[in-house]
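Appendix B. Chain record.
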Amino acid sequence: NFILQLKDHLLAHLQGIEYSGDKHDFTDEDHDQVIFANNQLHKHSVLQVNYTTYNCHILDSTLN
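Structure tokens predicted for this chain:
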């Protein structure tokens, strides 16, 4: 099941488990924490990060 394998991969990544090729045993409760809105995945080529500097200026950076 592709969706189950994808959820396993995402959960392992989010929990900092290094990929070793082995299958991880996540519970149904763990899998329920990963939700795909409208059953869709999207690729974004730009990331915008908003942050506050040490002197309280609000800035943003864009990464391609």
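Further analysis of this model is presented in Appendix C.
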